[in-house]
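User: Predict the complex with S-adenosylmethionine.
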Amino acid sequence: MTANESTPNRKARGAFFTPPAIAEFLARWAIANDPGARVLDPTCGEAVFLLAAGARLRELGAAPTAVPEQLTGVDLHQPSLDESGRILRADGLGARLVRSDFFELVTPAQIGDALGWQDAVIGNPPFVRYQQHRGDVRKRSASAALAQGVRLSGLASSWAATLVHGSAFLKPTGRLAMVLPAELLTVHYAEPLRRWLRQRFQAVNLVMFERLQFRDAEEQVVLLVARGTGPCDSFCLFHVDDADDLAEIHPLDPVGANPAAEGKWSDLVLPLDVRQLFKRASLEKMTRLDSYGTPELGTVTGANDYFTLSEVTRRKFGISEKHLRPISPPGTRHLKGLTFSRARWEELKLAGERVWLLHPERRARAAGLKRYLELGEAQKVPEAYKCTVRDPWWRPPVVPAPDLFFTYMSHRYPRLIANTSGVTLVNSMHGIRLNPDMAAVARDALPLLALNSVTMLGAEILGRAYGGGILKMEPREAASLPVPASVELHVAWKQLCDRRGCLDAALRRGEWWTVVAEVDRVLLKDAIGLTNEEVVAVRDAATLLRVRRTRQTEVHAAATSA
Ligand SMILES: C[S@@+](CC[C@H](N)C(=O)[O-])C[C@H]1O[C@@H](n2cnc3c(N)ncnc32)[C@H](O)[C@@H]1O
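Assistant: Here is the predicted structure with S-adenosylmethionine placed in the model:
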C-alpha cells in the first residue's frame, strides 16, 4: 500500500485492496486460455489484478514483450500507479498505466478512444457511498452509466457506474470479472443494475463468501463473472467459505439459480441448502398471506397531522363524533401485543393520542366543525396533493375497519395484530380484511403464528431495506409473505391458544425471541414437520439477513457522520 497515505484519504477514493487469491481467481477466469487477451483494470490501485493477469498470460505462453501492450491499468491516484509500475517491473512484467478518472475515458465505440476493445475487464471498483460520491465525479459516472442505458439513482455508490462503464470496453465475446459489494443483490438502488446484468450478458456467475474477505472494509462482497452478449435467463451461483476455497470452484459444475426478473435477489445470499429449505417450507407447507385476505393501504389523508385528532382537540372545537371515525392512532408504537382492543383504544383516547379521523358528513354545518375546517384552510391543508384531487378536500375516503393490522415499516420484523376494536386506520399500517370464508380463528391465530422463522425469513427476502435499517413491505410484497396454511394453523393454534396471554405478555415486554422459539417448535417442528436442524438453519438465516440489513445501515450512518 502506498506509504504515507491516511486512512480517510484511502476511504475517500474507495481504496480497499483485493487479496491476491481473489485477484488470481478472477484474472484466470477472465483470460481463460487466450494468451493474446487484452485486459483492462479500470481502477487498478496497486496492480494486484494486473499482476495476476500478467502471470496468467505468461503461463499461457504470451511473448514477454507483448504483455505490456496487452495490460492496461487506470487509476486517478498517481502514487498508486507509480507503485504499480514498480511491482510489475519487480515481477518482470509491464503494463500501460493511465492516470485518469475512468469516467473521463471514452469507450471504444466513441471517437477519441485511447484504450481500445478489451477481451477482459477485471478489478475491484471503488466503493464510495453516495454521501461521499458527489459533485462532478458523480455526474460523470452517472452519465457514463446512462450512455449504456443504466439510469442510476442518486443513492448509488461509485462501484455501480464503474461496473457499467467498464463493460462498455468489452468485445462482444468479452469477459468481465469484478469484486463487488454484496448489496448488488439486495439494495433498491441496484435494481436497474440487476435488470441490466440479465440483458447485457449471455452468462452471469456469482461467487459468494461465507466470511468477510477484506481486512479493512466492512462490506460483504460477491464476485461477479459475466461474459458474452445477453440476454441470459439464469445465473450460476457458487458459495465458498473463503478465498482459499476458490481453487476448488470449477466452472463446469455450477448451481443454477433463476433470479427474479424484478426486485431483490436477497435469497441468493443464502447458502443453497437453506434457500431450498425455505422454498420447500414456504411453497409446500405454507401459504401466502393473501390466501387469507388481501393487504390494503390504510386511509391516505394527505395531512395526517390535521386529519387525525385527539379527544382534547375534538372537545376544544366541539366536533360531534358523527363527523369523526375512530382510528388506531398514526404510527405503531402503541401496538406492542397481539391484539388491538376497544379497551386499548379507550386508554389511548384518555392518554391524548390521535384516536379520531376527520370524516364530516357531506352537508355538515356545525359551528365547531366549520372553525376546524377554517383552521385547515389557514394551514393550507387543501393545497396538499391528496386534498387537491378530492372533493371536498376535507373528507378523506375512509377504508373500512380491517380484521388485522400489518406493520409494514419495521426495524425487526413486520407484525400482524388482531383488530378487535372495530376501528379503522391511516396509512402508517396496512389493513387486512379476511376473506368471508376464513374462520374467525385466523384473526386470532395469525398474529401469533406469523412469529415463526420461515415467515420472518420471508419478510427479509421479500421486503426492502430502507434508511435506518427499516424493513418496508408494500401491500404486494406483504401479500406473498409465507404464513401457515389452514390445516397447520389449526393444529398449532390448538396447542398455543391457551398460552396466548403469556406469549402476548412476553411480546409486550420485548421478549420476542422466546415467542418465536415456542411458535417454531409448535408450528414448524410439530405441525409442519421440519427437523430441529432445519428450524435452526431457517432461524439463523433470518437472523443473518436481519443483522446484515441493520448493520449495513449502521455502516452507512457511520459514513454519513464521519
Ligand atoms: C477498491 S480500490 C481497488 C484497487 C485494486 N484494483 C485492488 O483491488 O487492490 C479502488 C481504486 O480505484 C481508484 N479510483 C477511485 N475512483 C476512481 C476513478 N473515478 N477513476 C479511476 N480510479 C479510481 C482508487 O484510487 C483506488 O486505487
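The longest strand covers residues 170-181.
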